[in-house]
Every structure is written in structure tokens, then in C-alpha cells.
Amino acid sequence: MGKIKLTIIMAIFVLMLAACSSSDTANSEPEASEPETSEDAEPETVEITDAHGTVTVPVNPKNVVALDNRTFETLEAWDIELAAVPKAVMLEDSPYVADENVQDIGNHREPNLEILAAADPELVIVGQRFSGFYEDIKKLVPNAAVIDLNVDVSEEAEAPGENLVNGFKETTLTLGKIFDKNEEAEQLAADLDAAIEKAKSAYNGSDKVMSVIVSGGAINFSAPHTGRVWGPLYDIFEWTPALEVDETTTDHQGDEISVEAIAQSNPDWLFVLDRDAPISGEADKVPAQDVIDNSPALQNTTAVSEGQIVYAPMDTYLNESVQTFIELFESIAAALAE
Hints:
Distance between the termini: 120 Å
Number of helices: 12
Strand content: 5-15%
Low-confidence stretches: 1-38
Helix content: 25-40%
Mean pLDDT: 86
């Protein structure tokens, strides 16, 4: 009888131990799996189209080098840090120029591309003055995404006005994708469209327009369709040219033409780019307004006598950003509407 009781007690004890073990297992938390680290995750990329085709670019890249003057103001507005820029062809008051941590690649005539290579960039933004170095840069930084945002508004371009507008939009929206600033980019594109519509609506369709570039105290011709800054605007706004001549160029100082020829065309409006204004170290720099005001030949033209003169923003020559052209178009609209 004693053996039977002992057996029963042992069986009950074993069952109790099993129940406790089962309860502990049920109540214990499962062992946490190792979370994926950010290093294990693939970096996000975006495919963009540049002047050479499709390029895969990292989103929010590190060590960015920018060489396109049309991009600096936009990147600055979006607080994008840059590793290197061509300070010699930038505005003196640009934060990138003032920042000693931003390396200086120099100008497009003699750039120090070794500095670019030493920056070990993930992205290089080429365009405008530096487009000719595209292949050299690709060879120097084979592991970087190199994009060329150059837009053809040259004398060979079929539609310089359309190219200019689409180029600004595409460049801005591309930068928005790369730096995760899509809303900001879309707003800039919308602001550009709005400014264009204002300037179009303000023009009466018949007033004669003359556009010039003042450089080194000389007044040069910025020809319809081909001239620097002003040329493509004749297409966009369908301006009536006061003067048309053969064999014009896209020269950054304009085409040489006599002031008398400008005066004889008697423009209703005079649009002026001061090339020298944003350039430091120009020995013979004379403000464009002084040159126009002190030109006897121009004083009897309708444009000057009626005060119908529009000056491009002073920083335009070195800061051909979408923001600059929005400002320019709004100035044109306001002047024409008076």
C-alpha cells in the first residue's frame, strides 16, 4: 500500500513540474531577432535623364560637387551642402564661396579637377560652362554619378525659347528628385509658368524690343533667338525685334554693333544685361545704367526718352538660376503693364 501511495505522489509531482515548465514557456517573450541595420539596407536611388541619357543617382547623396551656375541658388535655398564649387565664377556673397570648407575648383578655363577627385563625390552636377569637361570628370570619379544638365539654347537650337523654359523645369525637377525636394521643385516650376504668363499678357504684341549687353563700357547687341539671356525670350514672349542682323552669335558679351544702329532702330523698349556687375576684379567696370544714360545717341529713342528700360537682375550673368529668371520675367511684366 505504501508503495502505491509513493507512486501516486511521484506521478503528481512529475505532472506539476511539466505544468510549470509549460507555463514558463508560454509566458516568456520570444527571443528578438536581430534588426536590419541601416548599413544592410540598400541606399535609395532615382533614375534621371540628363544630356547624355539615363543616370542612376543616389537620393540625398553625400559629397556633392556642383559646377552649374543655374543650380547654386536652388541648392542654397534647399540647404544642400556642397564639397566643391567653382568659386571663381560665382557670386561673392554666395554662402558656398564664403565657406572655407567648400573647396574651390576654379574657373572653367583652368579648372583644378584634382580637387574634384579628392572630394570623392557621390554626385557631380555638370552644366553650362563646365559641360566640356564631362568626359574628363567621369574618368576622374568613376564611382560617382555624373549628370550633365546642360540645355541647348545655342544658335543651332531649333527652339531656344522652348528649350530654355523646359530646361529650367527639367533641371529643377531633377534636383528635386535627387535631394528629396519634390514639392519645392514643383513650386518653382509653377512660379516660372506664372511669371511667363504675366509677361506674355503684359506685352501688347507690337512694341519694338531691343536687347543689349553692356560690358566694359560698351553696348553690344543681344540678338533675337541667339543672344545671351535675352535671345530666347523673343521666342517665349513673341516680341517684335527692333533690329535683326545676319550672322549673330551667343557670345557672352553680345555682338558688336554701332550705338547709332541701335538708335536708328528706335526701340520702344530697351532690355539691358549688365555683364560686369556680378564679376569681381573687372578693371573697367562701369554700371550699365550709367553707360545707357550717358550715351547721346540713345537719348532720343522712344525707349530712353519714355523711360521704358528694363535691367536684368544685377547677378544674372553669374546666377542664371530659375529664381533669377522668375524675377526677370516678373520685372518685365510689371514694366510692360505700367
